[in-house]
Specification:
- The chain has 500 residues and is mostly helical.
- 77% of the residues lie in helices and 0% in strands.
- It contains 24 helices and no strands.
- The longest helix has 29 residues.
- The radius of gyration is 24 Å and the shape is globular.
- It starts with a helix and ends with a helix.
- The model has no long low-confidence stretch (mean pLDDT 86).
Length: 500
C-alpha cells in the first residue's frame, strides 16, 4: 500500500484521538485472538478490562467506536454468539425505549426548564439558598425526567448568562457575533468580576450535577440502569421508589447538607458569590427578554407545564412502559406547540441515540460475560460471605467500579449475575431485593467521584461551558470529593442497616 494511503487510513482510524490511544486499541485487537486461542476465560477478562479502558478514556474518544470494535471482534471469535447479543438486547428493550423516547420527550420541555432555572438564578440573592435550590430542583427533575437533559438545561442557562456578561465586559454592547471564549477584549475593570462569575457558575453547575445523581437514584427513570434493575426485579415506579428510600432518602439529606456545608465554609472551590454588577446586567437582560416574549411563546410554556404534569402522573401510576410515556409526551408537545417538521423533531433524538448505541455494545460485552462465565467466581465469592455483609460489599464493589467505568455497564453486569443466582435458587427473593438496592445505589452514589462514572458529569466536562468557566477534569474531581466521601459513607451505612 502506498505510504500516503497508509497515512490517510491511520489518520482516519478513530479520528482525532491521540496516536498512542489508536496504537493501544490496535494492540488490543491483535492480542485478543491469541489470548482466546490460549485460554477463553483469560481472553474474556482481558476484553472486559479493555472495554473499561475505553470507558475510562471517553474524553479521548467516544467509547462506541473502540468498544464496538472490541465487541465485534469478540463475537467474530466466538466469545459470544449474535443470538446471545440479541437476547441481551431484547431483554433490556424497555431501557432502549427509555433512552430513545423519554430523553427526546424532555427535549421539547427545554424552554420551560430554562425559564424555571433562570428565575431561580436571578430571584435568589443568598448563595447558600440558591445552591440548595439548584441541587433540589435538579434532584426533583432528574427523579422524573433524565439527568442528561437536566444537565443540558443547566449548561444552556449558564452559557447564555456567561455570554451576556462576557459581551458586556468586552464592550460589545451592539448586535452581531461575539466570541465569548476570547478574553482578549475584556476590559480590565471587569476582569475580576468575570473571574468571580466563573467561580459562581462552577459551584452552581456542580451542585446541580450532583443533584441529578441525588434524584436519579430514587426512581426507575432517574438513570438508565435504574430501569434495567427495575425490570429484572419486576418493580413498578412506586415500588422502586419505596424499596430504594431507606438508602436514597438519607443520601439525599446528606447530599443537601453537604451542599450547605461546602458553601458556608467555602471549601473545595465552592462559596463564590454572584458579583452585584453582573447581577444587574443579567436582570436587565432577562427583563428585555420577558418583554419580547409573545403570547404564542407563553402558550408554549403552559403546554409544556401541562405535559410535565401529565408525565409525572403517568409515571407515578405506571400507566404504560416508560418509553411509551415518553413517546406520548413527544406527540402531545409537538402537536400542540406546532412542531411538525421532521428535521426539527429529529434534533430531539441526537442527544440520546449515541448512548443508546453504546448501550447495545454494553449488552454484547455482557453476553461475553455470560457465555464465558466470567463473573461467576466473583459473584459466588460475594455470595459466600455472611449475608449481613453481602449487601454492603456489593455496594462497595459497584461503587469502586463505577468510579472508573460507566455505571450502566457495571449495573448491567451485576444485576444479571444476581438474577441468575435467584433463578438458580442460590438466594431468596428478599435477599435479591437487598442486593438490587446495593447495586443501584452503589452505581449511582459513589460514581459522582469522577466524570467517567456519571454520564451527566461526562456530558458537562465535554460541553461548551466547561472551558468558559475553567472547569477541568481535575477541578471536577476535587469539587466532587466532599460529595463522594459523604454519599459513599451514608450509602454504605444505609445498606448495612438494611442488611442487619
Amino acid at each position: 500500500m502506498p505510504q500516503n494511503a497508509f497515512n490517510a487510513l491511520a489518520e482516519n482510524f478513530l479520528g482525532q484521538s491521540g496516536t498512542l490511544y489508536k496504537q493501544t486499541i490496535i494492540v488490543f485487537l491483535l492480542i485478543n485472538p491469541v489470548l482466546f486461542a490460549i485460554d477463553p476465560f483469560l481472553a474474556g477478562w482481558v476484553l472486559i478490562l479493555e472495554f473499561i479502558f475505553t470507558l475510562a478514556m471517553a474524553l479521548k474518544c467516544y467509547p462506541l467506536q473502540p468498544g464496538g470494535l472490541l465487541a465485534i471482534e469478540a463475537v467474530a471469535l466466538g466469545m459470544a454468539s449474535p443470538e446471545a447479543v440479541f437476547h441481551e438486547t431484547e431483554a433490556n428493550f424497555e431501557v432502549i425505549l427509555l433512552l430513545m423516547f423519554m430523553v427526546a420527550g424532555i427535549y421539547f420541555m427545554k424552554n420551560l426548564l430554562l425559564f424555571v432555572f433562570t428565575k431561580i438564578l436571578l430571584g435568589i440573592r443568598s448563595k447558600i439558598i440558591l445552591s440548595l435550590l439548584f441541587s433540589i430542583v435538579s434532584a426533583v427533575l432528574s427523579a422524573f425526567l433524565d439527568a442528561l437533559t437536566v444537565t443540558a438545561v443547566l449548561i444552556a442557562v449558564s452559557v447564555g448568562f456567561y455570554a451576556v456578561y462576557h459581551r458586556y465586559a468586552s464592550g460589545s454592547h451592539g448586535g452581531g457575533d461575539h466570541d465569548h471564549s476570547d478574553d482578549d477584549g475584556v476590559e480590565d475593570s471587569h476582569r475580576q468580576d468575570l473571574e468571580n462569575f466563573r467561580g459562581f457558575l462552577r459551584s452552581l453547575i456542580m451542585h446541580g450535577a450532583v443533584g441529578t445523581a441525588l434524584g436519579g437514584v430514587c426512581t426507575l427513570v432517574g438513570e438508565p440502569q435504574n430501569l434495567l434493575i427495575a425490570e429484572q426485579a419486576d418493580w413498578n415506579f412506586i415500588q422502586f421508589f419505596m424499596v430504594m428510600a431507606p438508602v436514597s432518602m438519607p443520601a439525599l439529606a446528606a447530599g443537601l447538607l453537604t451542599c450547605i456545608t461546602v458553601e458556608k465554609l467555602e471549601w473545595f472551590g465552592y462559596g463564590a458569590k454572584l458579583p452585584e454588577n453582573v447581577r444587574e446586567i443579567l436582570l436587565s437582560f432577562d427583563e428585555e427578554e420577558s418583554k419580547k416574549r409573545t403570547l404564542r411563546e407563553k402558550c408554549e410554556l403552559v403546554i409544556q407545564a401541562l405535559g410535565a404534569l401529565l408525565l409525572v402522573i403517568s409515571l407515578a401510576l405506571h400507566l404504560a412502559e416508560v418509553g411509551l410515556i415518553g413517546l406520548m409526551i413527544i406527540i402531545l408537545l409537538t402537536a400542540f406547540n406546532g412542531i411538525i417538521d421532521e428535521h426539527r423533531i429529529g434534533h430531539a433524538f441526537e442527544e440520546a441515540l449515541p448512548f443508546t448505541a453504546l448501550l447495545v455494545v454494553f449488552f454484547a460485552i455482557v453476553a461475553v460475560i455470560h457465555e464465558q462465565h466470567l463473573f461467576e467466581p466473583i459473584t459466588h465469592a460475594l455470595l459466600q460471605l455472611d449475608e449481613e455483609i453481602q449487601g454492603p460489599m456489593f455496594f462497595v464493589a459497584n461503587g469502586v467500579l463505577s468510579m472508573i467505568s460507566d455505571n450502566v455497564f457495571v449495573a448491567t453486569v451485576y444485576i444479571t449475575e444476581v438474577k441468575n443466582a435467584l433463578l438458580a435458587g442460590d438466594i431468596t427473593r428478599e435477599h435479591f431485593d437487598l442486593l438490587a438496592v446495593a447495586i443501584n445505589t452503589g452505581t449511582n452514589l459513589p460514581s459522582v467521584a469522577t466524570p467517567n462514572g456519571q454520564a451527566a458529569f461526562l456530558f458537562l466536562l465535554t460541553s461548551a461551558l466547561a472551558p468558559l468557566i475553567r472547569l477541568s477534569y481535575g477541578r471536577m474531581v476535587i469539587m466532587a470529593l466532599p460529595y463522594t466521601f459523604v454519599l459513599g459513607i451514608v450509602g454504605f451505612l444505609a445498606v448495612f442497616r438494611m442488611a442487619s
